[in-house]
Amino acid sequence: MPPVAGQQPSLDEQIAIYQREYRDLDPQVEKVVNALSRLDRRMNVAYGRQLVTLGLGHAEWEVLKELVMAGSPYQLWPGTIAKRLGLTPAAMTHRIDRMLAQGLVTRERDPENRVRVIIGITDEGREKWLQVMRKASVFEEELLQDLTRSERALLGELLTRLLRRVEDAQPDAGGRLTDLD
User: For 81-127, what is the HEC assignment?
Assistant: First the structure.
């Protein structure tokens, strides 16, 4: 039976369509890859909705995350952030300007090199980061609620192995090639 107009076919329906059109398809591989792709899209939508409720966009979240990951004193050069996120310097400047206006970050001269600036996280920016983490933790717990601790551990290990394979094969694909803001 064909899928309802306007609705995405179920995963099994999609694989059956693919098999009809391409007989050499391995349905197990296709199920794993397509399930991961669909899960990624839906999780990104859910995270995006959470960010909006906190007055943040994905772009701001990425910068806050990088600053927190840098550790105390939660500062990085804009070029470092841009490289990690796959952004151009101009796109990074635009993003930082927006975040400065929102009170999420600071921009100060680097005392060791007065030509450079350092971006730091404000108390408000750190609180926004914590709010996002709290909301995400609840969502993620609900997502994995049907898995036992050992199943979660196994799934984490299997996905990490897949991620390593992709990262080894595509080492340049960590950031965006163009800014989507």
Answer: HHHHHCCCHHHHHHHHHHHHHCCCEEEEEECCEEEEEEEEECHHHHH
Q: Is 155 helix (H, G, I), strand (E, B) or coil?
A: helix
Mean pLDDT, contiguous 10-residue spans, the chain (181 residues)? 72 91 92 94 94 94 96 95 92 96 95 90 97 95 97 96 90 56 40
DSSP 24: T
Question: What is the SS3 assignment for 75?
Answer: strand
Report the run of H or E that residue 76 belongs to, with start and end. strand 75-76
User: What is the chain's Cα-based Rg?
Assistant: 20
DSSP 57: -
Distance between CA atoms of 30 and 37, rounded to whole angstroms? Answer: 10
Q: What is the model's pTM?
A: 0.79
Distance (Å, rounded) from C-alpha 127 to C-alpha 111?
26
Burial of 94 (0-12, 13-18, 19+ CB in 10 A): middle
